[in-house]
Amino acid sequence: MENAQAAQRVLLVAAHPDDPEFGAGGTVGAWVREGKEVYYLLCTRGDKGTDDPKMLPGRLMELREQEQRAAAAILGVKQVDFLDFRDGELEPSLALRGAIVYAIRKIRPDVVLTHDPATIYGAEFINHPDHRAVGTATLDAIYPTARDRLQFPEQLADGLKPHKVREVYLWGTQAPNAWVDISQSFDLKVQALTKHLSQIPTPNGLVDRMRERARAIGEPQGLALAESFRRIVMAR
User: Fold this and answer.
1) Concatenated DSSP letters for 90-144?
2) Taking each helix axis from N to C terminus, what angle separates 129-142 and 94-107, rounded to the nearest 10 degrees?
3) Cα separation, 186 vs 163, whole angstroms
């Protein structure tokens, strides 16, 4: 994990509010306390994520944006930005890729965190199509698009130069090769998740399940509590 320890700027790209905290909240909390700057890019404002028959998309978007900003503040995230794509309608389009490239070239992160697009389903779940779309678009943005100066030349006109990301961490992976100790940041992850009231109105054992999962991930690696990722170290 030497490169991650040396890196100072991190961009997290997620499909919906609450994805950052569920996927990597403990890691974000730990890295911020190591002195790293963490930035969030949310591709939607989560306008479909409710079973409340009285909730309208506009109101839900407002709520979820507020919740995400509050959660990020607990973890110490430096900045939270939102794109205007619609929940449930994301595709790994050129438009989405271009928006992520813009953020990469503007923020110039050493490390990018995002969804693993290779995870389609597991024994008890099907991965959200928005997660897969964002993971694919983000990887495509990292390589080769953000690197190549002739890609999206209008961004050059805005003063955004090409940028090479050093490392990628994919959460929700079924093939982890990197683990982050979240023993000291687990409580922060939980506190951040409690801000997402529209999604988690009553925890009902959620904290215990999360702790047990973090323990199951960490113990084989000699860690009390951990989050796991597929880590890609980009060639120079």
Assistant:
1) ----HHHHHHHHHHHHHH--SEEEEE-TT--B-SS-B--HHHHHHHHHHHHHHTT
2) 60
3) 32
Sign of the Cα torsion 25, 26, 32, 36 reads negative
**Residue 210 phi, psi (nearest 5):** -65, -40
What is the Cα–Cα distance from 88 to 136, expressed in whole angstroms?
A: 15
Q: Could you tell me which CATH number the domain at 2-233 has?
A: 3.40.50.10320
Compute how many other C-beta atoms are within 10 angstroms of the C-beta atom of residue 26. Answer: 27
Domain boundaries, the chain: 2-233
Which tens digits make up the pLDDT trace of 153-165? 999 999 999 999 9
Collapsed DSSP state (helix, strand, coil) of residue 11: strand
Q: Report how far residue 36's alpha carbon sits from residue 78's, in angstroms, rounded to the nearest whole number.
A: 9
Q: Is the pTM of this model over 0.90?
A: yes
Residues in the chain: 236
Which residues have a Cβ under 8 Å from the Cβ of 23 and sit 6 or more positions away? 14, 113, 115, 171, 172, 227
Digit-coded pLDDT (tens) for 61-112: 999 999 999 999 999 999 999 999 999 999 999 999 999 999 999 999 999 9
Return the H-helix or E-strand segment holding 227. Answer: strand 226-233
Closest CA to 159 of 224, 108, 231: 108
Helical H segments across the chain, by residue range: 2-6, 19-33, 57-75, 94-107, 129-142, 153-157, 186-193, 206-218
